[in-house]
Specification:
430 residues; alpha/beta; Molybdenum Cofactor Biosythetic Enzyme, Chain A; 2 domains; three-stranded antiparallel beta sheet; 16 helices
Length: 430
């Protein structure tokens, strides 16, 4: 790395693309110059990196456990080679995982690789309604298992007790860092962590009811080699580096303006995205729904979508968003993996075709969809800009022909997110 470039302080591994962007957004808000890499950066990209934090976006949430662990360890090795002082493993604020993993197994592998004996697990994100109390995860006022996440097509969450969920995925002893210890402040948290370690606990679910709890956890864990959680846990980390005199000020609004066409692509079946699609349709804006059964039958869905976009003078929405019952019906006929892959691949091909037609600004809804689209577009590195909605920043890709992208987790964003994101990505281009 060139001596004129800053050595990264915080190295992050995210198990999906929108989760990586969510985390990068939180770090930028905290004053860390942050870049997001789609996969492990090449040597050429690494040589030009200049940031306080690096977030490597993997697609390991739903892959086989062994693959997820191997990819995460490879990312860890790369981050350590860059000199990162602390590692953060980021997963969803709803603790999304399959029945087999992968949160516990990846956390355990990273912990052992770093030679450490303890880490926290805290997916809480109070600003987006995710809180933890006595080890149970709430989404707004509902337990995780009653929030709609029990119907997720890939990672259904039917147990809100995260101590139990995490224990099923790791050989480490899992404990609980309760809200009453956290409420007593940083030193009380450190004392409780020492007690948990003495009891042989290797991972502890940490309660969090407010942002203040997350700031307390961040300060108390400044010396831990590894932290794991949702983006909320990263709230308190920038201040640790600032207190040590390692951060310098920067302008978060300095993203370049990207001119060109624009589109919204939605593949998520989450409650928030269903509402966002409904809002678009209620506004009588042009939209085309992708039918997985038509894809399975070999119909020219991609060509039809590209023709639809060409025929309309206004920005279009192309979506596969469906109700949980509709998703289940398709999965029963096609299988879960095939149904998801058909939609993701189609939206990726549509994005590629739209780029060739001059589209340069993309609003993408859904983690799996975002992964498929950025891969199809050949995006390797993202510069992180200002927040659009909690957990979702504006971003601009690197390269000679930059793209403006908003990569949104299915559950994030207000009902008017699509219109708001398009406006922010456009800047002065329109």
């Amino acid at each position: 790395m060139s001596p004129t470039l800053s050595r990264p302080l915080l190295g992050c591994i995210a198990d999906d693309f929108t989760g990586a962007t969510d985390l990068a957004n939180m770090l930028v808000r905290g004053g860390m110059r942050t870049v997001q890499s789609i996969g492990i950066p090449s040597l050429e990209v690494a040589a030009e990196l200049d940031a306080d934090a690096i977030v490597i976006a993997l697609k390991s949430r739903t892959t086989p456990v062994n693959d997820a662990v191997a990819e995460s360890l490879a990312a860890l090795n790369w981050l350590r080679e860059q000199g990162c002082e602390q590692i953060f493993f980021k997963y969803c604020s709803t603790f999304d995982s399959t029945a087999a993993g992968n949160i516990g197994q990846v956390s355990e592998a990273l912990l052992k690789a770093l030679g450490s004996d303890f880490t926290l697990a805290c997916p809480a994100f109070p600003e987006n309604g995710r809180t933890l109390f006595r080890g149970h995860l709430f989404v707004q006022d509902q337990l995780l298992s009653e929030s709609g996440m029990q119907h997720h097509p890939l990672t259904p969450m039917t147990d809100a007790n995260l101590v139990r969920v995490l224990q099923s995925q790791t050989t480490q002893k899992v404990g609980l860092l309760r809200y009453d210890s956290i409420a007593q402040g940083v030193e009380a948290v450190r004392t409780r962590i020492a007690e948990l370690r003495a009891q042989g606990v290797g991972m502890a679910i940490a309660d969090a009811l407010s942002d203040q709890d997350l700031y307390t956890l961040g300060a108390a864990c400044a010396d831990l080699p590894l932290l794991t959680g949702g983006s909320g846990l990263a709230l308190g980390l920038p201040e640790n580096f600032r207190r040590a005199g390692k951060l310098r000020d920067f302008d978060v609004s300095s993203l370049p303006t990207v001119a060109g066409g624009e589109v919204v692509l939605a593949g998520s079946a989450s409650v928030a995205t269903i509402g966002q699609v409904a809002a678009w349709l209620e506004a009588d804006r042009p939209a085309l729904r992708i039918n997985p059964m038509a894809l399975a039958a070999g119909e020219p869905v991609v060509a039809q979508a590209l023709a639809f976009a060409r025929e309309h003078q206004h920005t279009v929405l192309i979506y596969a968003t469906s109700t949980p019952d509709e998703v289940k019906a398709v999965q029963q006929q096609l299988g879960v993996e095939r149904a998801g892959a058909l939609v993701e691949n189609a939206l990726g091909e549509i994005a590629k075709g739209l780029r060739q037609a001059g589209v340069r600004r993309f609003v993408i809804a859904g983690g799996e969809t975002s992964g498929a689209v950025v891969k199809a577009l050949g995006v390797q590195l993202l510069q992180i800009g200002a927040q659009i909605d909690p957990g979702v920043p504006a971003t601009v890709s690197g390269g000679d022909e930059p793209l403006a992208l908003a990569l949104k987790s299915g559950n994030f964003g207000g009902r008017d997110f699509f219109a708001k994101a398009l406006k922010q990505l456009a800047g002065d281009a329109q």
